[in-house]
Amino acid sequence: MEVLAWDDSFKIQIPLIDERNQRFMEIAAKLEELNAVKRKKEEDFDNIGEALADIMEFARMHFNEEEKVLVGKQYPELNQHKREHKKFIKKIMAFRRLFSEDPGKVADEALKYVKSWLPWHIKELDARYAPFIRVQNYLAECQAMGRRGRS
């Protein structure tokens, strides 16, 4: 499986979302880096547990901000998008609950899940709403310019 790394193929051309998605990938890459240690000590597992917590905390913040944008622009597929966010959060919460029982196995499974879900979500679901948001932004700009022109 490929290493998690941001590149231009992930850009959806909405600067705030691209910035947040890039940060999300960096946080997930930290989990990958920590999990790559072969003979893990207790301290390594503590760090992996913290990385899982960081992923969940950032995901909640990012999803909330992204959903506010989608609500504000009246994105018609908002509910489906929110469902995917909720599934991700629930899955990461489950990994965190199970982590104390079998940290090595859970770390591997969590990493595998994040490495498949995050690129898919950005390239498929975020990319699906991006043209809609860009058009809405353009129309809002045109409307604002029209108001300024009539003043």
What would you note in describing this structure?
This protein is mainly α and 151 residues long. 81% of the residues lie in helices and 0% in strands. The chain has 4 helices and no strands. Helix 3 (78-99) runs antiparallel to helix 4. The N and C termini lie far apart (58 Å). The mean pLDDT is 92.
Helices and strands, with pairings:
Blueprint: H1 15-35, H2 42-72, H3 78-99, H4 103-150
Helix pairs in contact: 1-2, 1-4, 2-3, 2-4, 3-4
Domain Hemerythrin-like: 15-132
Keywords: Iron, Metal-binding, Oxygen transport, Transport
Family: Belongs to the hemerythrin family.
The number of distinct β-strands equals 0
- The rounded distance between the terminal residues' Cα atoms is 58 Å
SSE-based structural type? mainly alpha
Mean pLDDT: 92
- What percent of the residues sit in helical stretches (DSSP H or I)? over 70%
Radius of gyration equals 18 Å
**Global outline:** elongated
**Separate helix tally:** 4
Order of helices and strands: HHHH
Q: Biggest sheet, in brief? A: none
Strand proportion: under 5%
Low-confidence stretches: none
What's the oligomerization state?
single chain
Describe the structure concisely:
The protein has about 150 residues and is mostly helical. It has 4 helices and no strands. Helix 1 runs antiparallel to helix 2 (about 40-70), helix 2 runs parallel beside helix 4 and helix 3 (about 80-100) runs antiparallel to helix 4.
